[in-house]
Structure of Glycerol-3-phosphate dehydrogenase [NAD(+)]:
Amino acid sequence: MDRINVCIIGSGNWATTIARNVGRNVANSQHMEPIVYMYVYEEIVDGRKLTEIINTTHINVKYMPDFVLPTNIVAVDDVVKTARDADILIFAIPPTFVNSCCKTLLGKVKPTAHAVSLIKGFERGDDGQIVLISQIIMRQLKIPCSVLVGCNLAHEIANDNFVEGTIGCRDQKYFRLLQDIFKSATFRVVVTDDADCVEICSTLRNVIAFGAGCADGMELNENTKAGIIRRGFLETLQFVDVFYPGCRMATFFEACGISDLVTSCYANRNRKLAEAFVKTGQPLSELEHILIPGHEPLGPVTAELVHIMLEKKGLADKFPLFTVIYKICVGDQPLTRLVETLRFAREDM
Amino acid sequence: MDRINVCIIGSGNWATTIARNVGRNVANSQHMEPIVYMYVYEEIVDGRKLTEIINTTHINVKYMPDFVLPTNIVAVDDVVKTARDADILIFAIPPTFVNSCCKTLLGKVKPTAHAVSLIKGFERGDDGQIVLISQIIMRQLKIPCSVLVGCNLAHEIANDNFVEGTIGCRDQKYFRLLQDIFKSATFRVVVTDDADCVEICSTLRNVIAFGAGCADGMELNENTKAGIIRRGFLETLQFVDVFYPGCRMATFFEACGISDLVTSCYANRNRKLAEAFVKTGQPLSELEHILIPGHEPLGPVTAELVHIMLEKKGLADKFPLFTVIYKICVGDQPLTRLVETLRFAREDM
């Protein structure tokens, strides 16, 4: 049987972090091809091509200068060359590049290939709905697509701190393989087939983290923040029940659920952005370039799409926290409404 | 119909905090007796009786000097006089005094009275099991006993920050009344009849907070702490399922569940104690007197009783987080086992 060929599409901070695990894991497996191609969007850094730098120094000087990559990670500047022989395609590019990347790859990947999206975020559907990245990849490339989430602090994985992640994969025969590709001694990976739930949980938590950041910006207390986390968790359960019926409660207790939510509300970019938004009074559009350059702040845009989806079903009133966070983002409600919402939200949902 | 008479047994920080809400609420109700007796263990403070100071200055100078009590809170140095005419007995005394207090009150309270325990902690049963405080009060006084939990930072309530609490009450006809007695504009109170679950959740979170504090002491990362919270939440569900069968999942999503757990893991005395235990290497018995004078550190003792209960059923292996926290407390396992446990804990429970 042929060895399984794994490639990585993307070379940012998160792609490079996971490449360290993937490189080590394939090197230690008799079932996997020992070389992993990594697609790098070519840039010139200090007069040299980034791919050349990575392939000679094994350091991604642009996006992760403090960590060395395994030597079996090979940077390639052509996405088709990267992916054409791969059995497992790991996508770790910004969400805005997914469509064009898939167009380039269409018909050029193995029909038996399996994709794994590590992409945070989603696409905006024509009807203003959230379209999951895994759905776009599946639809465009006509191959199955799993997701890996639950590990939103790349530097903590890179530093070999203990981190938990969740893989959502609809096909049980890939469970062990995907775990073997991503895991490490300090990166615990659990696989579940409840894939949509894994991905949407990971998306909604950015809205809640934005709310938690607003509370921090107002210097509210621990109990208020816990109230936001609790209410956000309840509205996540409820949102999933309406828009992704059939998800399982147990999935919310995986890393993609409760852990991701807690870490996001204490240490996430959306939290930080919201805190600054409240403290400085500056518009979000200005702050995001200063505070999180190169990253789209997913909280506000997710809040907007969630709101559109809820409005279409006439359900905004049933999701008071998601609704008030959206309205605070766009300036339709004062910040004081956040705590008011917690006070008056109905318990029975 | 007679007005409902409410009394408070206890005058510590927590009793005094809640007395401010209770005093205001009864004063504004046509159904409640406007005077609330508060039992104060008599002490001499600066040459004057504490009850006299409270009744003249309306300040509990000993336990809450920065806040003024409503004038309808009347300090009484006799627990029988405090309680004998009361329809609602609010208990807010240290857990070690519950038995003797109930002995004094036996036969002296109205047979139709209803107790509410605000007591954090539990009693150690003869067989080494946790005995819930509400069970002791019910058994000894032969009246029903509800519980109010989920608000472990008294100063946040006192400062009128937003806080959520949960009341566990088996009798639906008391739901509205209890809510009306305790709530305020900033203290949201939800009542559920799943009373044992409310009380045991609030107890177990001290074990998890101790684990979170160990992680802080080792300067581990956000993801590790989230892993402890997640695993702790799962083991709480599982513990309740074994020892208090029939509890409802929804209760874990009330303030007594997820909120109390998160606040405890970020801002609780057990967390702080554990952090110092790790950083200084000093014995717990020495640290607790320095760090949390006047308070029993519930984390270690709860961990011990939980461990005894699990061992008796041969289930310690199924609760690896609770077990390792106990073993770290007593020095049977090194701290490094905490992360090891998270790494290797089985997901299927």
